Fold these 4 entries.
Entry 1:
Amino acid sequence: MIKELPDAEERKSTKCGNLKDHANLLFKQVYETKNLRGRSNDAVSTACLYMACRQEGVPRTFKATEYHMNAYILAYLFDFSRDLEVCAVSRVSKKEIGKVFKKILKILETNVQSVTVEDFMSRFCGNLNLNIAVQRVANVVARRALNLNLVAGRSPVSVAAAAIYMAACALGYQKEKREIGEVAGCAEATITCAYRAMHARASELFPEDVRLSIRPLPL
């Protein structure tokens, strides 16, 4: 008899459990090396969770990890240590998480797969209530901007956010850069810089089937 497929809540719980176990293992490995003495447990635990998300194929931005750590994971994340109190929300800065994350990579002599624009596009568009058509166009815009070297040196998050803004404007959806920035976890000014770098060659970025019907883009 075929086992009944788990429902959405069960799948969500399983994913949280996998992330919890993975982050727990990373923290334990780092803790035992004693190479991060002086760093707050909150910073190390947040960096471990960020790394676990990357390695489990559900990447999150530093900002998302900083402010939206899942309560289920946090409640049980490091239960092997009686002395460690895990807060429901990390108060560690994005900069500090990044520093600790890089140190952990060196300590464990490991790496993580590079994050791409596509890793964030679906989640960002979903959280912004933008449909699959906008997501498809935004993916093409971002990919072509990268191929044309228009956004060299910019993070995948800022490129994704700028591409979403450009696609939404072109297809007639009212989305402010501020709103997109809140979802993406990056500053409005950062989105503006990436958007302006792409704007001059916008006609080359859109898919052929929408290129002739797009609305004028704001500067």
Entry 2:
Amino acid sequence: MDTIPESAQENTTSKVSELNMTTVLVAAVLGFIVMAIILLLRRRSFGRRDFILTGLSESGKSAIFMQMMHKKFPDTFTSITENVGEYRSGRMSGRLVDIPGHYRVRDKCFDQYKRTAKGLIFVVDSVTVQKDVRDVADALYSVLADPAIQSCPFLVLCNKQDLSTAKGAQVIKSILEKEMNIVRVTRGRKLQSVGEDNMSKPVFLGKEGKDFEFSHINQNVQFFECSAKDNQLNNLSDWIDRML
């Protein structure tokens, strides 16, 4: 029986050791990459933990905030500054931020919190939406077109459903789509005449050459009905809980 020379055995052993060391190094590098990705995702998730309530004045944002945070409905509540509270569901938590609805402070407050937003809730008065549709659509378009929130889930919350004259969510969606189409045309003309740099330029909403539809934009926009007065906010709390 032939015997393997001692030098050949040593060479084979050396190659096996090198192979094992390479395998260990590759595994270590892959493990490091996986851990880095996990940490990065956690940091991003932690950095975006705010659920922002926005919309026009008198839509009921602050009443919704009070019900979600303190389980009570205020008789009158007009915010002139933002309200911030820690929302908890089981062992998970996030911040609920109520942005004032007055146009003089709304945009400034929104700019302060938009980069930490994990979800956007645009509150609509279901009773007066037809009368105020131009202002509602204009404010909604501004939020949806902001480059900072393009990755955020978006909820249009149709409040005051306890009132008999309230319009349903699907009717409100249709009304807003028609008005958003007009707002988009008007804003497009203004941008052409004024011009903006690419960093601050609002995102074009919808598809070129087609009437505006919420299904055509980047965000996943959902429409829910609610009543802050009757504390019918399960749709909202469930929506937030899914993202915590």
Entry 3:
Amino acid sequence: SVSLSVSLVSLSHVPPGTGKTLLAKAVATECNTTFFNISASTIVSKWRGDSEKLVRVLFELARFHAPSTIFLDELESVMSQRGIGPGRGEHEGSRRMKTELLVQMDGLARSDDLVFVLAASNLPWELDHAMLRRLEKRILVDLPTTEARQVMIQHWLPPVSNSGGVELRTQLDYSLLGDKTEGYSGSDIKLVCKEAAMRPVRKIFDALENPQTEKNPLPNIKLETVTTEDILEVIAHTKPSAKKLSQKYTAW
């Protein structure tokens, strides 16, 4: 007889700045599981044999606290292709750590433990082939759509916002800005909104730095309204960080 089990391992390959870590935390919260956020600095050690022990302890903890989710962030920094590089001189400790991680993931596939492994990578084509075989599901988290970009801009720059007792008003054409930010990731849009919100503040600083005279008294200082033109000017000087790689992610 042949039995098929539910896939508990998946890879999320995403352009930079699209919120892969936030998405992983949301998955763990919705599934009501214990969340382990793992990066290269968590399991890589300079001491001989420690990296393999850390990997083994991680999976033992995940089994003990099951149901649990292990999130491997920036997977390419831990599981790059073995034997590839200048002089093919990969360190022995790195190879042992990768082998232990593969063995532990094989152990999950053969057991009934409710441990879900979710990995994220900005460079999925650099991952080791043995790891790709174990990552049964591959999910592309693409750049935000026009509607999503409009919602993001409206979230960061609503018509009226009050932060720290300072009221900021905006008059924006969200539909136009959604079209103008094509190819921008979530972090790019946040940066654009922050820069646009700082423009009225910079104008106040410029007014205060100018020398005051009787003919040129101190003006009435107040925050100006952020307009669509302000954001368009910021967009002209802020280029998208992942637009050129979008097609490569889709093809992979």
Entry 4:
Amino acid sequence: MESKNFLILTVYILILFVSIENIFTLSISYINFENKTDIEIPNIVSRKEWQARPPVARELMDDKPKPYVVVHHGGIIQYCFDVKTCSAIVREYQNMHLDERGWYDIGYSFVIGEDGNAYEGRGWDYVGAHAPGYNTQSIGICTIGDFSNRLPNNAALKTLEALIKYGISLGKISQDYHIIGHRQTKNTLCPGDKFYEYVQKFPRWTSKPIPKNSTTS
């Protein structure tokens, strides 16, 4: 009789243990799922989709998260609010950088349109040609248009912030990154007075960035 009771008790304990383990596993899965949804992934239009020309050459970034994000504007009074128009402008940027400036490719890591899309330039993994002294240690993000007298629209600004957060989640941008304007790296008005005022309000903006030597085109 005692053996039978012991066997029943053992079975009950095993059932209880399995139930608790399943509940714990489900809870962990739910937590992980929730964490993933915290990152808003911006829509990135690939090079193939915007019909990029192939690069002349490429230089791989090192695998360390980048400490800087450099903000640019196109500097031309030319705006876009749909994929077709934005893609055409990004192709113009690439043509100018390749044919007039003799660079290897479009200079920026990403280009943002006021359609709310990010357009893949050199991407996360290849050294850009957008900010002297920072090309090897930054992600360069350009917003299409001239923002001397106005800000990019909310769709573009939201994508800028989402792209930075996404880069951090991928390990491409350091969690302790600093954001700077292009004018902090050379004598230029980029990213425009109005946009630069906005950039300076970012919590991660720094007035004292530290350059490194870089010869990448």
